Amino acid sequence: MPWTNQGGRGGGDGGGNGGGPWGGGQSPWGRPSRGPNIEDLIKRGQDRLRGGLPGGLGGSRAVLLILAVLLIAWFASGFYRVEPDQLGVVLRFGAVVKRTTPGLNWHWPYPIETALTPAVTRVNRVDIGYRPSERGPGRVQQVPEESLMLTGDENIVDINFFVLWHIKEATDYLFNLSDPDGTVKSAAESAMREVIGHTEIARALAPGRGQIEQETQKLLQDILDAYKSGIQVSELRLEKVDPPPQVIDAFRDVQSAKIDFTRLQNEADAYQNDVVPRAQGEAARLVQEAEAYKARIVQQSQGNAARFISVYEAYRAAPDVTARRLYIEMMEDVLAHTNKVIVDRGISTSGVVPYLPLPALNAAPPSSAAPAAPPAGRATGQPSAGASGTRP
């Protein structure tokens, strides 16, 4: 060592090799070089502290004052502040003992109690299938290993969606999850893959998006509740649902053909809905007319038969009267639509017109002169019984 050869002495026990850098085998405290004395160190420290205190306070009082200051500082370290969007959770030796509201609060200082202040009202967002790009606002970076999913009809669909969540139970959130964002992301991706795996691609692209969001959010909440995560999913929304970029053009052609097919089918259904009811109505009308004609003919035939039977019964009771009545009724029917002239041959020589044209007299106006008598000749029709000998 550098101090072993001081004073030009050799390595004897009495001189140059006993005492280190202070020489003479002495320590810096004036004692043999057996090592520092702890009691001397404490005594010297107390002396220096007493010398620095005002009024020359004694050692015990100084220690008590220091302990009092340290105790006050320890108690003061128990104050903590809870922000408006936070909830205070106080732990005593690691166990939850109480929850505190926003504001200034106090707990027993460490290591007895500690306070955690999770933000329970803050809405957190997790993106699945994409990430915000560093190229600029509004740009995203696709993550194919998250966004590509297999549908129920064995097609591949590219899905981007996000999840909004907040803390509903602070204790479960603090002690049951080590990575809340990672847990929500993994559970949301798993739930979406399960729902898409039971959904056809055509339904996932347009009409079924709302139902997919609802089913996935419910399944995700069930998973998080099973984990006792203390997380509430407030919203799950699909940002993009498209076929993979490699086949999107061909898929659009297929969708266009399906749209045309649906349009033509709807037009055919509309034509069918217009023609078939009208044809059914016409058929029903014809059937009803036939039924009415049938009922009329049947009833008319039954009436004629009943009338014939009644006439027959009357004929059996009074043949002469019935025969004369039938003759008169028949003549009324026959002569009702013919021109009738009454002729009385017994007055042909009396200068009176031998016939009277009744239809012509009925048709002539009252103020006009009597029409000229038609030339005598053959009378139309046949006079009824008792008509001969009647004068006009």
Tell me what the structure shows.
The protein is α+β, with helices and mostly antiparallel strands and 392 residues long. The chain has five domains: 2-55, no CATH class; 77-116, no CATH class; 132-243, Tetrahydropterin Synthase, Chain A (2-Layer Sandwich), CATH 3.30.479.30; 249-317; 336-392, no CATH class. 45% of the residues lie in helices and 17% in strands. Strands 6, 9, 10 and 11 form a four-stranded antiparallel beta sheet that branches. Helix 5 packs across helix 7 (209-226) and helix 8 crosses helix 9 (319-335). The termini are far apart.
List its traits.
392 residues; alpha+beta; Tetrahydropterin Synthase, Chain A; three-stranded antiparallel beta sheet; 10 helices; 13 strands; 45% helix; disordered N terminus; disordered C terminus
What overall form do the CA principal axes indicate?
Answer: rod-shaped
Report, as a whole number of angstroms, the end-to-end distance.
Answer: 186 Å
Number of helices: 10
- How many separate domains make up the residues? 5
What class would the helix/strand composition place it in? alpha+beta
Q: What series of H and E elements makes up the topology?
A: HHEEEEEEEEHEEHHHHEHHEEH
Strand content: 15-25%
**Average of pLDDT:** 77
Percent range of helical residues: 40-55%
**Quaternary organization:** single chain
| Uncertain regions spanning at least 5 consecutive residues | 1-33, 373-392
For the record, the CATH architecture of the largest domain stands as: 2-Layer Sandwich
CATH class value of the largest domain: Alpha Beta
Cα radius of gyration in angstroms: 63 Å
Largest sheet, described in full?
A: 4 strands, antiparallel
The CATH homologous superfamily of the largest domain is termed Band 7 domain
What's the total number of strands? 13
The CATH topology of the largest domain is what? Tetrahydropterin Synthase, Chain A
